[in-house]
């Protein structure tokens, strides 16, 4: 079986300044992988590069065997690959439900209504405040909505950038429960964190990143 994600010899530079150096990692299908590193270590740059949102060079970048380097960024959602950014990036004036449905509208996903119900079954609190505007939510609630939005197209591979950052303990525990449940759905997940406080019991393997260099364990 092909790995859910395979990265080999990934280099990223911004204005000729190296940010990521010879990064290699693998996410086995159906597994959760932790990416641990301090702020500024390169976690977000790595995730954005995988999603095709930054220019990069790589020996190999493939999802389920398909070469991601040949695909435009907008094509990833149709292949079940999705990204939850650290800063959430909800549209404040839209309702929670509208924010969750945005990827479906943008990518013409035909089963959006069924997928929305699937998300609500796993995150009933999001259903409860679905008619509220995003700007009316707490930071932790916004994280839940951002995860729900990522799950709309994210049927196979999810990239979760600091999902617990700035979240109150009670909502951190709830996020942990939801993310743990994704394993039973067969999803593959990369979860980044500044340390392994929340992810230690979730992930199958760990990569550590420091100054743009990734090492296993």
Structure in words:
Residues 5-216 form the ABC transporter domain. Pfam families: ABC_tran. The chain has 217 residues and is of the alpha/beta class. The chain has one domain (5-216): 3-Layer(aba) Sandwich (Rossmann fold), CATH 3.40.50. The chain has 6 helices and 10 strands. The chain has a 6-stranded mixed beta sheet with strand order 6-7-8-3-9-10, sandwiched between helices. The longest helix has 16 residues, at 169-184. It starts with a strand and ends with a strand.
Q: Any chance you could write out the topology, listing elements then pairs?
A:
Blueprint lengths: L4 E10 L2 E11 L4 E5 L6 H8 L9 E4 L2 E2 L13 E4 L11 H12 L4 H11 L1 H5 L10 H13 L5 E5 L7 H16 L3 E6 L11 E6 L2 E4 L1
Distinctive features:
about 220 residues, 4-stranded antiparallel sheet, 6-stranded mixed sheet, Rossmann fold, 10 strands, alpha/beta, 6 helices
Say which CATH homologous superfamily is assigned: P-loop containing nucleotide triphosphate hydrolases
Gap from first CA to last CA: 23 Å
| Uncertain residue segments | none
CATH class division: Alpha Beta
**Any idea what the CATH architecture is?**
3-Layer(aba) Sandwich
Number of distinct beta strands:
10
Number of helices: 6
Taken in chain order, the helices and strands follow as EEEHEEEHHHHEHEEE
Beta content comes to 25-35%
CATH topology assignment: Rossmann fold
Question: Structural class of the secondary elements?
Answer: alpha/beta
**Inertia-based shape:** globular
Domains (count): 1
Q: Biggest sheet, open or closed, and with what strands and sense?
A: 6 strands, mixed
Task: Give me the side-by-side strand order of the main sheet.
Answer: 6-7-8-3-9-10
The percent range for helix content is 25-40%
As a whole number of angstroms, the C-alpha radius of gyration is 16 Å
Question: Taking all residues together, what is the mean pLDDT?
Answer: 94
Keywords: Amino-acid transport, ATP-binding, Cell membrane, Membrane, Nucleotide-binding, Transport
Family: Belongs to the ABC transporter superfamily.
Pfam family, one: ABC_tran
Domain ABC transporter: 5-216
């Amino acid at each position: 079986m092909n790995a859910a994600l395979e990265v080999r010899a990934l280099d990223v530079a911004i204005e000729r300044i190296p940010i990521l150096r010879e990064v290699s990692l693998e996410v086995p299908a159906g597994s959760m992988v932790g990416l641990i590193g301090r702020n500024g270590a390169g976690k977000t740059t790595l995730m954005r590069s995988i999603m095709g949102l930054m220019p990069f060079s790589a020996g190999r970048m493939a999802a389920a065997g398909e070469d991601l380097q040949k695909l435009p960024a907008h094509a990833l959602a149709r292949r079940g690959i999705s990204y939850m950014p650290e800063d959430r990036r909800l549209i404040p004036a839209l309702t929670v439900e509208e924010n969750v449905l945005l990827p479906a509208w943008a990518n013409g996903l035909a089963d959006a209504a069924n997928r929305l119900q699937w998300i609500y079954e796993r995150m009933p609190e999001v259903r409860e405040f679905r008619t509220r505007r995003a700007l009316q939510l707490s930071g932790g609630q916004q994280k839940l909505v951002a995860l729900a939005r990522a799950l709309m197209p994210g049927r196979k591979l999810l990239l979760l950038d600091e999902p617990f950052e700035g979240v109150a303990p009670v909502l951190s525990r709830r996020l942990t429960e939801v993310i743990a449940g994704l394993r039973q759905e067969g999803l593959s997940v990369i979860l980044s964190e500044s340390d392994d406080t929340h992810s230690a019991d979730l992930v199958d393997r760990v990569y550590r990143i420091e100054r743009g260099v990734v090492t296993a364990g």
